[in-house]
Amino acid sequence: MAKLLYRLGFWSASNRVKVILGSIAILLISAIVALSMGPKLHEGTTIPGLESIKTMEQMYQEFPSIVDNSGKIQLVMKSLTDETLSSDTTKQLIGAQLEEVAKDPAVTAVVSPYDNHSVSADGKIGYATISYNTPGSDVTETSKERVLDVAGILRDAGLQAELTGSGYVKMEIGGVTEGIGVLIALLVLTVAFGSVLTGILPILTAVIGLGTGVMLIIIGSNFFDTPSFALSLASMIGLAVGIDYALFIISRYRQQLAEGYERKEAIAIANGTAGSAVVFAGITVIIGLAGMSVIGIPFLTAMGLAAALCIFVAVLIAIFMVPAILEAMGGLIKAKSKKSSKGSTRNKKNETRGNLWGGVCYRAPMVGCDPWCSIAGHYCNTFLQHGDRHHG
């Protein structure tokens, strides 16, 4: 494996333009295909084999009239002023906007909060139900936009308006919290590497891998039963491991430069050594996630396979694209700084402290916890030795 990855890293570095453009082309092609097909995600979390599910299936067989597969959107409204939803002004406003929604050819029925008796006792909250002639997953973006426009008008008039229901599957990839997390990761990596450019590189490759993985999941949702939350899980895991896997190779590359290796040789060695760890870690996680299918619960299977696909793409990006980008950056990514004599003294002191802690664990372990103390002492020593060698 190490020899194969060594040759792969050397080849990627030698063909950096082809590899980088090819990776971007795959991302763009998958995005075009995914957006043209559209996502077919759902919110279902059924668990086959449950007695309640069997009961519902029996009821559907005996009473077919209760089965309603049409998509529905609930427009939930709350008054933010002293006026209630039952006031004449608010009634006219809501009625006029629901009439606009009813003009959509895909709409089969619109039930106002006054007809479905959903207005709360204090008159502040209520909801309207909009039914469509297609299943919830097939409600078009045009129909959703029409309801969103109505919600916007109601908000401007002093009402809080929110949408929910099977016809309004709101797919969110990333957000404010994820963006803050990426910025914090960039700050930490910049401080650790001492370079903004080096800190951006693992995030950039992770985003490319994540984008490709997400597009492939969207394409797959047209052929396989995929819940919307499977995409969220895959996105979080894919971004995290994508950054980690790129860091393994970049850190080893800088170490090889510090030892005097020529750039392409350093890239190849980094891909052969750290890349082996990347492949092993990726395969381990993929097996674990794919193992969720053994449980036999469809939505858990979809979640595991979707996340496994993102990790598979992250591994490929790490061992193919990262070496190519490292070569393309030339001398912009510097070698790790040499250890000073002062740093060497500090290393010895830290090693002594680490050995002291390990000795305490070995000599006076808690009853029944000897293996855990041994492991703690080993990792403490390893962290102190390698941590100072990386940052000394």
Give the secondary structure arrangement, pairings included.
Blueprint: H1 2-14, H2 16-37, E1 41-42, H3 51-62, E2 72-79, H4 88-102, E3 107-111, E4 125-132, H5 141-156, E5 159-164, H6 176-193, H7 196-220, E6 226-227, H8 228-258, H9 263-290, H10 298-328, H11 341-363, H12 370-391
Note the run of SSEs as H and E: HHEHEHEEHEHHEHHHHH
How large a portion of the residues is in β-strands, by DSSP E?
5-15%
Put simply, the count of helices is 12
Average pLDDT, rounded to a whole number, is 81
How many beta strands in the DSSP annotation?
6
Give start-end ranges of low-pLDDT stretches: 340-346, 367-392
**Strand order in the largest sheet:** 3-4-2-5
Specify Rg, calculated over alpha carbons.
28 Å
Task: Write down the overall geometry.
Answer: elongated
Helix vs. strand class: alpha+beta
| Helix coverage percent | 55-70%
- Main pleated-sheet profile: 4 strands, antiparallel
Q: Report the end-to-end length measured between terminal Cα atoms.
A: 31 Å
What does this structure look like?
- It contains 12 helices and 6 strands.
- It starts with a helix and ends with a helix.
- It has a 4-stranded antiparallel beta sheet with strand order 3-4-2-5, covered by helices on one side. The protein has a two-stranded parallel ribbon with strand order 1-6.
- 32% of the residues are buried.
- Helices cover 65% and strands 8% of the residues.
- Helix 9 packs antiparallel against helix 10 (298-328).
- With 392 residues, it is an alpha+beta fold.
Task: Please supply descriptive tags for the structure shown above.
392 residues, alpha+beta, 4-stranded antiparallel beta sheet, two-stranded parallel ribbon, disordered C terminus
